[in-house]
Design goal:
Elements (H helix, E strand, L loop, with lengths): L1 E7 L1 E5 L2 E5 L5 E3 L4 E11 L8 E9 L25 E6 L13 E12 L4 E9 L2 E11 L2
Parallel strand pairs: 4-10
Antiparallel strand pairs: 1-5, 2-3, 5-8, 6-7, 6-9, 9-10
Length: 145
């Protein structure tokens, strides 16, 4: 399978169409809350249609460790234990639309939205795996703070 992973400010799928705003960035503000979304366009080969697939999108640091958000400014240190890795997992299955030409890849649009996140200043990568196979990634850097 192939996919595009696009970092953006907002993404939503409506009627099998992907709507995105503020797309294509690779730098984010560190130390302050900002909205974050990951837009995905997965190209499912004809031979992989009508099968269940499991996809996972994970934000990791450059050493491959799961990335945790930073504490928001002014938050008590006790909240650190409540921070969770930034990741999402989902199943999908796409059928062959009526009239589709045999051999055509079918596009599956998906989005992961995080309304507000605070990150430490460092490099991060969103990694997409499908059926435990690495497919695509989108690196970015949180700067400032």
């Amino acid at each position: 399978m192939e996919a595009q992973v696009i970092l953006c400010d907002w993404a939503e799928v409506v009627n099998n169409k992907l709507y995105i705003m503020g797309a294509g960035w690779d730098r984010a503000p560190a130390g302050t809350p900002f909205p974050l979304a990951v837009a995905l366009l997965i190209m499912v080969p004809w031979t992989e249609t009508n099968k269940k697939h499991v996809a996972q999108i994970s934000m990791v640091t450059t050493d491959g460790s799961p990335a945790l958000p930073a504490l928001p400014p002014g938050a008590p240190e006790a909240m650190r234990a409540q921070l969770q890795p930034v990741q999402g997992s989902f199943q999908f299955e796409v059928g062959r639309p009526p009239g589709a030409t045999e051999g055509t890849a079918i596009i599956v649009p998906l989005s992961l939205r995080i309304p507000a996140i605070v990150l430490d200043a460092k490099r991060y990568v969103f990694q997409l795996t499908i059926d435990n196979v690495p497919i695509e990634s989108a690196p970015f850097e949180a700067v400032g703070g």
